[in-house]
From TrEMBL, chains A, B:
It comes from Rhizobium herbae. The keyword Transcription regulation applies. It comes from the Bacteria. SMART domains: HTH_LACI. Pfam families: LacI, Peripla_BP_3. Coiled coil: none annotated. This is LacI family DNA-binding transcriptional regulator. Keywords: DNA-binding, Transcription, Transcription regulation. One of its GO terms (molecular function) is DNA binding. The keyword Transcription applies. InterPro entries: HTH_LacI, LacI/GalR-like_sensor, Lambda_DNA-bd_dom_sf, Peripla_BP_I.
Length: 352, 352
DNA sequence: TCTCCATATTGAATCGATTCAACGATTGGG
DNA sequence: CCCAATCGTTGAATCGATTCAATATGGAGA
């Protein structure tokens, strides 16, 4: 007690019972006689015992009851990026329901990342935005805890992944617009990892580092070809998923002689920036230009007009990811979930 | 090793060194001879040892290197509410810099809350939105870890709190509008905890449960009185900080014979909803109606027009809160930080 | 050759709890 | 009145690492 810190053993001794009994008083009250229980609790209160310390308990139990969500982006990413937020909201809901804690893991530099991954007190990891983050996967694997990657499209099939069918989703988006009658398209791509921002040569884009981007682009092209539209005739502009690069892309696009009537954006974030750019320039959406996004983040529904987009089954993704970690039942291979088209106000037939 | 789990002790035995040395190989490599170090590392690799397990390490070390952020709201709150997000972003940045982890703590019901608070593996807690959450404070205090409450205005001075000067901030907001020439005001209040939503009698509002709301209201009134405006003449509408209740309040306000020319919103969220309502009804902001918010969330800057608001020093709040927990140097009493007026496009002199 | 010192390694204690086989006390039945 | 079953309690082992006083080793200086 001189330690300033009261341990279970102190309480046990003071109450004149064994440590085992004291432990039972807190962990399995029903097994100890009421009289003794009362006495121990009274002693505990008297001594100012704060209850069993998790550090000891967990060492014994082996499980922490928390999952780590890791990303190569800075920690703030979890609270700023719409997709990450939407996903975290769902994950949070699942965790809430199962009484599981969430620990956020990230780092500014590679060295700290390693340390943070290794020192996180969790039962497993969910990895976000893992493209180009081979190192994150590698570090996590070394930790030898269950983990599952989200939105990874890498070739390494030894990594458990829950992904979505980017190709089919993108095709769905393009087909939707082509069905409406559009023939002049432009693609606003996501390219975060060093690919040149700006107009991209057809061949180059297909070699994009990020398989998410690549698949979506392939999907767009595949669907457009069904309508006889040459891939080479569809300009693809890389963006950094931020306002300035989207603005730059649109500046270039609408300086062309025959600007597009339909914009295929690889993320809702890009699509929303694009809609703002268009509104500021006096273009009507969907009257002059139709815009379709990807992800279906909450903002897509509240924007005006509402953004037509491809919805990811975030609920399902979150549920599967969390239960995979908690249940230890990692999917054998890569799981791919289906996406759906959500039609809102941002798409319509082109001005005839 | 039959356990399927390799421990440090196993590695030590296999490498033919003492456990102490093996521990040093990982924790303080410089202290062990290179030759031995190599051998131990090789053995570790061979056995598939994943590195020192945090559970053991932390038991010994006593500190977890993570802080818990707790709230009575559901977990999703951290990712949805603009103020919470803005704050979390700052906290995340501070934690990033110091290599500290973040654990989110919340719960659907009181019972789970207790369990989650008690079982969170953290060195201390930051409590969010603690008004009305006496139970959260009580639970946290029982845990006997350092904690600090944010945005609490309760009377209990034994609770360490970092707060802001709501009264001065509100006064600043009202004075700003009055200086511009406005004389017809309305207040959109935050009242989440059971206070009647809708028009509020003057006396009743002052008795609001939430001291944040109360102080802001007091501040508004105090400043307006300096300009000879009767508190009783300023309608106060409670809202639930969501769109529908804000819409309802505005419906009522603008059905009055002489609607306000200036709106004092107790949060940016409310203010932004109000601006959307006004835009939808054809009112020009700031031409017809001026709007001022409170908090200065990121959205305030990107809205159009930009929202004039009272900025909380979130950086400072986050920095102090985190270092208070980590350094164990809790402020003696309640700390109150100053706020500043950020003038953007949503306020202007009234139409003459 | 012997002493002294610096450096590397060992072994045991420790952190704070849980668990479980074994033991002691009651109670009911025969 | 004895035996068995029941229930509560004990004591020691365990979880996986870190730490530190004590010891072993090797080299330099006298």
């Amino acid at each position: 007690m001189a330690k300033g810190h009261v341990r279970l053993a102190d309480v046990a001794k003071a109450a004149g019972v064994s440590q085992g009994t004291a432990s039972n008083v807190f962990g399995r009250p029903e097994v100890v006689r009421e009289e003794v229980r009362e006495r121990v609790l009274a002693t505990a209160r008297e001594l100012g015992y704060a209850g069993p310390d998790m550090k000891g308990r967990l060492l014994r139990a082996g499980r922490v009851n928390a999952i780590g969500v890791a990303s190569v982006e800075p920690l703030a990413y979890f609270f700023e990026d719409p997709w990450a937020r939407a996903l975290m909201t769902k994950i949070a809901a699942v965790c809430d329901a199962t009484g599981t804690g969430i620990a956020l893991v990230s780092a500014q530099n590679q060295q700290k990342l390693a340390w943070n991954i290794n020192s996180a007190l969790v039962d497993g990891f969910i990895l976000l935005c893992v493209e180009g983050g081979e190192r994150l996967v590698e570090l996590t694997r070394r930790r030898q805890l269950p983990f599952i990657a989200l939105a990874l499209g890498g070739a390494d099939t030894s990594i458990p992944v829950i992904g979505i069918d980017n190709l089919a989703g993108a095709a769905m988006a393009a087909r939707h617009l082509a069905d409406l009658g559009h023939r002049r398209f432009a693609v606003l791509a996501i390219d975060q990892f060093g690919d040149p921002v700006g107009a991209t040569a057809p061949g180059q884009a297909a070699r994009s580092l990020k398989s998410t981007s690549r698949d979506r682009l392939l999907g767009y092209r595949q669907a457009l070809e069904e309508f006889g539209i040459e891939p080479a005739s569809v300009p693809v502009h890389g963006t950094r998923n931020d306002r300035s690069s989207v603005d730059a892309a649109l500046d270039a696009l609408f300086a062309m002689p025959a600007p597009p009537t339909a914009i295929l954006a690889m993320s809702d974030r890009i699509a929303l920036f694009a809609m703002q750019w268009l509104a500021a320039r006096g273009f009507k959406v969907p009257g002059d230009v139709s815009v379709i996004g990807f992800d279906d983040v909450p903002e897509a529904a509240t924007a005006s007009p509402g953004l037509t987009t491809i919805a990811q089954p975030l609920d399902e993704i979150a549920r599967r990811a969390v239960s995979a970690i908690l249940g230890g039942a990692l999917p054998d291979a890569q799981e791919t979930l289906d996406v759906t088209l959500v039609s809102r106000g941002s798409t319509a037939p082109p001005r005839s």
